[in-house]
Design a protein that fits this description.
Elements (H helix, E strand, L loop, with lengths): L1 H26 L4 H14 L5 H18 L4 E3 L8 E3 H8 L3 H13 L4 E5 L5 H10 L5 E6 L2 H12 L7 E5 L2 H10 L4 E6 L5 H11 L3 E10 L5 H11 L6 E4 L3 E6 L8 E4 L5
Parallel strand pairs: 3-4, 3-6, 4-5, 6-7, 8-10
Antiparallel strand pairs: 1-2, 7-9, 8-9
Bound molecules: S-adenosylmethionine.
Length: 274
Amino acid sequence: MIIKKVAKHKLIFQKRLQQKNTLQSISKIENNTLQLVLKAFKLAKNNSFSKEDITAFKRCEAYRDTLINNDSIINYEIFGINDTATVSEICNKAASKQKWCHFLYNIAKELTKATVLEIGTNLGISGTYLLEAIKGKNSFFTTMEGLPQLCEIASKQFETITTPDNFKVVQGLYDITFPEVMKNERKYNLIFIDGNHKKEPTLQYFNVIKLNIKSPAIFVFDDIYWSDAMKDAWSIIKNDPSVNFTIDLYEQGIVIIDTNENIKNKHFSLHLSY
Ligand SMILES: C[S@@+](CC[C@H](N)C(=O)[O-])C[C@H]1O[C@@H](n2cnc3c(N)ncnc32)[C@H](O)[C@@H]1O
């Protein structure tokens, strides 16, 4: 545990030492999607937001507050686990932190006609930010979750942001729902992979989704340093021949696939937040 923490802080320290140079190197590359991610990163890092964004963030965080004060019991039966947790406990443990939600929101907001796929709805915190970013822009949000009670809570929340024809919460175990979702005709340009942090499923999601993208597409992988297996998955994904750019943020890994770009497998490393 201590060794893992030391390794984490060493890596982050190296990122921070190089940050200025890395930001300069990225800014010199003429790729619109890479520049979009860079802008999203800088705005989140510097807390530089418009009044409209700040108002949207207040709504998102007000939703988080209701969850933190919700003691309803959620059961894990669908995963074959005889266990329960309160909404409040789940929210504290699993939902994305504010800084990372801001970053995701910034990316989604800049996309024209966003088609977003999220693997890992949970209580819909990241989904709330994503929908706030894309609502009213001829966009669509698909999100997938195993626990039926969480799907119900998230769906109700999403209906406070937009109408049900702009999003779909797909309930069920990914082994069953992922192939079904991939069968539909939709092509995605923002994919947030934040559920089932294991090597084989992560690679499977990437390998299948990359064939169902609307290029240029941005993948956001959460918890790329979660385990040695996830580190392996990240390393394989980074070096996939379809990949143009990656940014390692430690907590998350960003992948850009742009079929009109000649540069391949160009990797960067930045630090957004602990
Ligand atoms: C880390 S949480 C997602 C957090 C959410 N993106 C947010 O930031 O608010 C991951 C979710 O994936 C779901 N999940 C994990 N493995 C799954 C599987 N094999 N099938 C269905 N759902 C799964 C869990 O129930 C959990 O709610």
